[in-house]
Structures are given as C-alpha cells and as structure tokens.
Write a structure and sequence with these properties.
This protein is mainly α. The chain has 12 helices and no strands.
Length: about 190
Amino acid sequence: FCAGLLQVRPDAPLWAKCGVVAPTQAVRENLVAIAETAGNKTDVSIGTRMSVREHQVEVLLAIDRIDDAISLMRKLVAMNAADESQTEQQLIARIKYRILARMCEIGRLLDRKDLVKESAEQTLALIGTFGKNLMTEWYEKSEGGAIKSILDTLIRSKEYERAEAIVLAMLRATLNSPQVGKNRDKREALIS
C-alpha cells in the first residue's frame, strides 16, 4: 500500500510511518529507492525535490540508517538555492531549518557533539544568508518551531554560547528585515 501511494504522491507525509510499519527490509529499501527517484526528478522545482528528500531522511531514520540520514541531511543543507526565486529560496530555507533541528537533536541523542556544533554553525550561516531578505512574519511563524528546537537542544547540550549566537543573529536579521528595519515603532518595540 505505502509504496504504491508514495510512488504516485511522493509529497504525502507518510514516509516515516511507512518506514516503521514496513514488514521487511526489502520493502524498507524500496521506500528509500522511491524517495531517491522522486528526489532526482528534474521536472519539478528544487523545493519539491528537497521536500521529498526531507521525507527520505525520515524514512532512513525510521529504518535505523542513521549515518545515511546524516549524510543526506548534510547534502540538503549544503544545497545552493541562490539562483532560485525568493519564494523558492524561502521554501528551501524552511526545509533546511527543519533538517538542522533534526540534525541537532540527533547529535544530542547520540552524544555527537560534532553534529550539534555543525547544526548550530549551519543555522547561523542560514540566518546570515537571508539577513535583510528575511521576512519577519514567515520567520516567526514558520520557522520559530525549528529554530526554537535548535535553541532548546543547544541549551540541553550546555552549548550556551552557540545558542546565544543564534539568538543574536536572529535579532540582527529581524532588525535588518524590511518589515522591521524601516518601521521605527516596530524596531524600538523589538529592541525594548
């Protein structure tokens, strides 16, 4: 059932569940192959491909292929979207924030300080990339959860300096955003 559905609708949010309930290793590997094939399609946008690849990460984690999932997460976070439209860049950034939150939590759970550090550094880089183009409403509503998760994980890991650096980068990005930077009242309210 899962394989047939996900071949037709690779955007369906069933990947991890299907990976967990897959009765055999062959079925699990087939799910990975379906996600990889869908993620390689060139007739869809880069955002759609990344979304499918994010699902592939989930199925890899569900079938305990942790190293493969981490490797794929690193590739997705490193993906360059500079030539894409602003809307597509924002979609890709949302996916990257979710992936970084997942990577940070995996690092904490596996006591892999390198993953915690890497996810924090990549989060800072991603915040820095958007800078003035960061849309405050999108940032607060859509990615507040992912960034909050990263901050919570950093604090639980006693990585206070990294958490502080992310908070300061978020504050700078928000203050420099068009929605806040040009509006004196919003800017002063945010600072106070």
